[in-house]
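A common beginner's mistake is to predict each chain separately and then try to dock the pieces by hand. The better habit, illustrated here, is to supply every component at once so that their relative placement is modeled jointly.
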Amino acid sequence: ILNVEQSPQSLHVQEGDSTNFTCSFPSSNFYALHWYRWETAKSPEALFVMTLNGDEKKKGRISATLNTKEGYSYLYIKGSQPEDSATYLCALSRDDKIIFGKGTRLHILP
Amino acid sequence: DADVTQTPRNRITKTGKRIMLECSQTKGHDRMYWYRQDPGLGLRLIYYSFDVKDINKGEISDGYSVSRQAQAKFSLSLESAIPNQTALYFCATSDVGAEQPQHFGDGTRLSIL
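With all components supplied together, the output reads:
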């Protein structure tokens, strides 16, 4: 069974501070882990996909890691900016199935 | 122009009515998906299709049906709408392979009175 949990559900971060949040999964019976960024009134957009234990991906100030042995992925944001305010979704996929977490809602405080 | 287009963008209708939501894509992807989003519940998969006329149930298919008559189009129907189907509906497409990201439309906000 594919299952994915994200924490925290919501997070307030001061502008300029760095932050991170977690996607956890009890079983590694998936092929890929995806992170999406979802801004209010828009649609989710893909950030990263990772498939191997130890994978690390980086795009500007945002990076992600995958640890399939311990069952988690972290998303890091360095030096938060107002435009980082969004919901960040984690999803696990196999060829026949995909399941999304409920997301972490990030609010950047000025 | 958007690669994944959903119509209508907003719809208000009454209980018992038949509703069809349309999705069309210009990305040339074989795979298409319908999700609904409810506050606090994230995105839940309703149906998905890996090819023309291929239909697969997702997590919450009861009360819904879909049609995939062409690669570029995937429609979602509510045969007899009920108020708890009020939600934001997203269509998505992807290329073949679990590592391929999903590309989402802008969503359809559906309200059932």
